[in-house]
## 1
Amino acid sequence: MAESVGVIGAGITGLAAAYVLSPKYNVTIVARDLPGDLGADWASPWAGAVFHPQKNATKAQQEMQTKSFNFYWDLAKKDPSSGVKVYQMTEYRDDQDDDSNIWYKPLLPDYRLMSKSELPAGVTLGLQYTTVAMNPLLLLPWLKEKLIAKGVKFVRAEIKSFDEARNIAKSKIIINASGVGAKQLVGDDTVGPVRGQTMFVKTDFSKLIMMEGSEYTYIIPRALSGGVIIGGIKSDRVDTEVDIPLKSDILRRVNRISKGAFKDVDLDTVTDIVGFRPGRKEGIRVEREGDIVHAYGVEGAGYIYSFGIAEAVKELVEGFGFKSKL
């Protein structure tokens, strides 16, 4: 009989872990928020959800990102209904002028270094490549449906301890993909919410553009939605009130990197989005502690790491023999 594994959290990290573990284990996901929920207290439905590799990454983190990209790339080709789609990315930076430290050059198809004449004012480096972007409002329910078909159980519960999760999941091994919840669940004081504010704009514009360095600005098409997400900002604020002046600032920055593609946008007609990324000052935590496998702290890179973290979680689960006592 297959061993049981419990997963705390139904965000993209928890769903990915369950997806990778489900062929071999009886998996139960225990979570306060489930795919289809649209509350502001969890991050996954509101994420930009684009595979834009994290430049500053260890070798192990690069490997996790690579595995995640490969999963989404295959999914985009096999099942467009998942909300995963292939796009050309234009990546701008103003904090470096060459691509000597870009580790993902061999990973992403059609990679090229843009000429200086192609760059907007103030931009010192431009890269183009082919990547994927996900529509979370489609992908999360798609994953839930696939997981249920694989026998994964979903239990809605806000748990306060690992023992609670064990009792619900009837499992000794628990995957802690609780995001911001790890602050209380584990007592990890380095964990906290990182506020993001974006806008959904109805448009035919379908280019994927990112700007990093002295600012963080992006345009991310949403597959099958008829629009794009524009942003962004990272903030320590913990309220959900829309910052009105920030909307104008985002629009100004987006127009600068898109040659004015959004100059006619009426800010009163956009859909405002405020969400909280699961941050951790010490970065991603993927490690085993007894019968707990921790997988949290991804901040705004959940979709970039998700299925790579899931593979690492599986390796940690299988690194020790265990038998359920329940």
## 2
Amino acid sequence: MWVEIFCGLIIFKLLKWFFYDDDVLDLESSDFNALFSVANRLEKLYGGKVYVGLRIPDADSGSRQNIDMVHVNKGEAVVISVKNISGFVSVNSDGSWVCEGGSKHKAERFPDPVAETKKQASILESYLEQRGVALPEGYFSCKVVLPNPKFWGFLVLGGPFPSEVITYDEWVKLKPEPKSMFSGWIKSAFRGGKKEMQESIHQKLNFTLSTAPMWDRLELKGNKYVLGEFLDFKGKQEDINALKNIRRSKVSRLIIQKTSMFGLAHSKLQVLYSPRDYRSEGASGSEWKEVTVRSSTEVLFQPDNSTEVRKFKLSSVVSLTLSA
């Protein structure tokens, strides 16, 4: 019996090593997943397009400003900051937040999220102007979303509750109605304007945001995501040679498909990738190319806000999107 148990444990560890990745398991409640959860719900509720993980050049600081997401609908757009915090938040008179009782078991301090989001909107507007997209005054609005169900509540010290903040209770009650909280964020800047002008600016804005600098995006099994920078592949030399054409200058996206479920040492994966087309957002289905590599091949990826380079087995990856 002990031999059977021992063999069972060995098989379990082999299967876990092959089908799972410790980094994947660490990301079950990550801030990245919260971003994409919010973005997906916004598109389902109100349509339009949500751009996640923008890195907008800031001319004043000479650096890039990270923006969680921008939700674009015709005649309006919202810059959104997502705070995946739990516990109880105190808002000081200067707008800064102190979060206590959360999952990290220690008080966390944040600069005023509302002020930061408004600054991001200003930087984004300047960037769009530089790229020839002049938006009417008041086109952008700002919101801070708290989507974590373990968020308990607010205590505001020395001022009113910030109207730009959407708490968890408010977030789950949103409905796809014309007068709901999200669809009524912005007074349309084009009311009474020409329809042609509305559509022209809307198209320019969407094209510019779709080609703006963004973080690379790694989609993992189990609807998990990581934003950061793709560095390289690691594995057998023949697999690396097969993947040599997958570089951000040439490829915009790759998708992983399993071709063999068994034979752990020799299992292969099918990698489909689309050549980059700078005139549009992606390639058509007929333009996808294909290579086959070992499932043990790894993706080297450095997540945003981390100094550690992580390794993800291709067997745990669904897709990889590379910023231009």
